[in-house]
UniProtKB/TrEMBL annotation:
Name this polypeptide is given: Abnormal spindle-like microcephaly-associated protein-like protein
Database matches in Gene3D superfamilies: 1.20.5.190, Leucine-rich Repeat Variant
Record localization: Cytoplasm
GO BP terms, alphabetized: establishment of meiotic spindle localization; mitotic cell cycle; spindle organization
InterPro entries per UniProt: ARM-like, ARM-type_fold, Armadillo, ASPM, IQ_motif_EF-hand-BS, P-loop_NTPase
The ARM repeat ranges on this chain: 241-288
Alphabetical keyword list: Calmodulin-binding, Coiled coil, Cytoplasm, Repeat
Amino acid sequence: TIIQSYVRGWITRRMNWKYKLSSVLIQRYCRGWLARKKFYILKEATMCIQSAIRKFNSMMSFHRYKHAATEVQRFVRGQIARSRLEGASYLYLRGDSRRSQDSFGMTKLLHSVIKLQRWWRFLHSQNVRRKSAVLIQSHVRGIFARRRTSVERRYIAMIQSHWRGYLTRKASKAQVLDLRMRMQTSAANIDDKKRLINKLLSALSELLSMKKVHNILHICETLDSATKYSDKCCEELVAAGAIDKLLTLIRSASRSIPDQEVSKHALSTLRHLARYPQMADELIDTKGSIQTIFWELLRNKEEAYFIASDVLKKICNSQKGLEAVRKLPALVKRLQALVEELTRKANFEKRNVKGQSGKEKSERRLKEAIELLKRITSR
């Protein structure tokens, strides 16, 4: 039994060794076959690439040789043709009787060539001129057509707008009449105390007696809006003494933000009043008005500065206002000093890259001050 087991083990190990040797042999042959196949593929690819490169080089060489041969042939043919022409002209000048027929033929050929060239140049120039004339005519016709179309379109749009307006007015005629009657009825029955101008006059009379800043600011904003759009309100307010009260309010304003808002709206109201010549004269005749506006110009740097500048410009539009401003040389000198200071500041900010917003504001203030100074000193 022990011998049999040993024999069986030996037989099994031998069979395993044979199987292992066979598998290794098969793997080796497979790897060799794959390597040879890959090598043959690479070899064929290399040969194809080499053949393509050789073909390309051969074609390039052939084209170079062909081009060189063509150039040589062209040069030789040209030289032969020139020699023939020169020989014909030389024989023609010598009057050689032996070559007279050849010379006559060459001369005739030369004249024929020249005549053909002249005819071809003439034909080509005629075609070019004709095409140019047609192109210019088409452009001119296009310009005239577009202009005529634009005029017609404008006329059509105008006619359509008039017709639509007529239809709209016709459709809303009854509504407009009804609205007009209602407005007339309401205007006839309204209480005088509720009218805008009466409310403004009432608020103006209580302006200096108010203690709360937000009430004063509300009244100044209302006066600013009313005088901006209504000349009737401007006349009534000036007749009620609004200029004195507004100037007093501006003088009493402090440097706080609410007071500066009040001062800004008061100056804006004066600007609206100064649009009209009669009211501008009233503003000029008011005692201390120009000094007050000048001081607001000199001490403010925000929006009130530009409003005060506008008021002074409107005052300087008349000869009376200009003379009144020139009677205050100290303030004019202060304005010149302000222009010099703003000029130095603008030059400094030009060299400084930072602070673009402040730079724009300084340039705007300088522009306003220079323009105002020119108005005062130019006339």
